[in-house]
Amino acid sequence: MTIKTIPFIKGDGVGPEVTAASQAILNAAIEKAYHGQKKLDWLEVPAGQKAFETLGSYMPDETLEAFRKYGIGIKGPLTTPVGGGIRSLNVYLRQSLDLYVCLRPVRWFKGVVSPVTHPENVDMVIFRENTEDIYAGIEWENGSPEAKKFYDFLHNEMGVSKVRFPETSSFGVKPVSREGSERLVRAACRYALDHGRKTVTLVHKGNIMKFTEGGFKKWGYELAQREFGEEIAAGKLVINDLICDAFLQNALLKPQDYSVIATLNLNGDYISDMLAAQVGGVGIAPGANINYQSGNAIFEATHGTAPDIAGKDIVNPCSHLLSGVMMLEHLGWNEAADLVYQALETSFARGCATTDLARLMPDGKAMGTREFTDYIVSIIKG
Ligand code: NAD
């Protein structure tokens, strides 16, 4: 018998509701697939508002330690603390564990209403770089002594004269490294090969930001050729690239042309949410933050704490649930993962979903979170 311990953060707002729903559904799928031979041992670890109130810390050390020790874990959404200390708990977790890939698979489920005419053509996996770029948090507010010092350096030492309004400008720095780009593109190529996906598209804005975004593209191609040259020569892997604005357009017009996307942090942020909207929105888009070298991975719902609907039994648990399914796939427990996919497909095809999705379906039957959870469990049990 295999028992895998999974540290989990319940999260704030709707976090406890989506966590309970996912755990019930994942447990049912595992039981059905492996008849008691495999099991998840859920280990709650503190974080967020509840941890702050009881332990005086939004992210206690024991939580980070548990994620390190057990390798993988799952989290519900966390309220971003206002003022002082940690800027964002999610960013803190990603940085502390160096989770350099933000993995966002995007696929459509039949029955889910979409703003595009052929959502079935959307089937992409986004590898978003998670540790660099303008997101690294290196910025200075306009009017601050630091902003002035930084501008003086640019102007006096670097000969920069292009800042249009230097006195009132804030400044941000965009580091993009060879190592950071290479490990991201390596993970995307490896994933493509392991999952029978042929094309990896490097999405960048290298026509304008030649050394940062252009560097990403150049290093990406070089890495792919150096480490996956044989597979490329054998036609098992194709690497191409596209400017980000063209990609955003093409992803709407001909999404079937794209499979695995490797991109920088900010582009990846926009791309992930746009593609999620094409298949049904935030309630259904899962994600994971992964370090493929250390093996650390945290799976998470991509939406926030949704305080406006917390405690009302109407939240859609699918984003969190599907991130749990990604976790099962990460463990190689594909039989259980497939059972959840099939149950969701059955449910959506019958118009059965939480309100956010059901109200858009022609014959939608809106269910509360608990009712929907029980319904999915009953489909899995058969
Ligand atoms: P949000 O995602 O919480 O909510 C945006 C809107 O979408 C709301 O109307 C909400 O009701 C709806 N919504 C979100 N998830 C839903 C679901 N599963 N089912 C049905 N409807 C859903 O974004 P926000 O309001 O900007 O942020 C609220 C808080 O969450 C903030 O403190 C923010 O910092 C935090 N946040 C956390 C994460 C995270 O932990 N990963 C991500 C984003 C935002």
Description:
By secondary structure, the chain is of the alpha/beta class. Helix content is 44%, strand content 18%. It has helices at 15-34, 49-55, 61-70, 89-96, 145-157, 178-194, 213-233, 244-253, 265-278, 318-331, 334-349, 355-358, 369-381; strands at residues 2-9, 38-44, 72-75, 101-107, 123-129, 139-140, 171-172, 199-204, 238-243, 260-263, 286-290, 297-301, 352-354, 365-367. The strands form three sheets. It has a ten-stranded mixed β-sheet with strand order 2-1-3-12-11-4-5-10-8-9, sandwiched between helices. A hairpin with a 6-residue loop joins strand 11 (286-290) and strand 12 (297-301). Helix 1 packs across helix 11 (334-349), helix 1 (15-34) packs parallel to helix 13 (369-381) and helix 6 runs parallel beside helix 7. The protein is globular.
Ordered list of secondary-structure elements with their pairings:
Blueprint: E1 2-9, H1 15-34, E2 38-44, H2 49-55, H3 61-70, E3 72-75, H4 89-96, E4 101-107, E5 123-129, E6 139-140, H5 145-157, E7 171-172, H6 178-194, E8 199-204, H7 213-233, E9 238-243, H8 244-253, E10 260-263, H9 265-278, E11 286-290, E12 297-301, H10 318-331, H11 334-349, E13 352-354, H12 355-358, E14 365-367, H13 369-381
Parallel strand pairs: 1-2, 1-3, 3-12, 5-10, 8-9, 8-10, 13-14
Antiparallel strand pairs: 4-5, 4-11, 6-7, 11-12
Helix pairs in contact: 1-10, 1-11, 1-13, 6-7, 8-9, 10-11, 11-13
The chain binds nicotinamide-adenine-dinucleotide (NAD).
Nicotinamide-adenine-dinucleotide (NAD) binds next to loops.
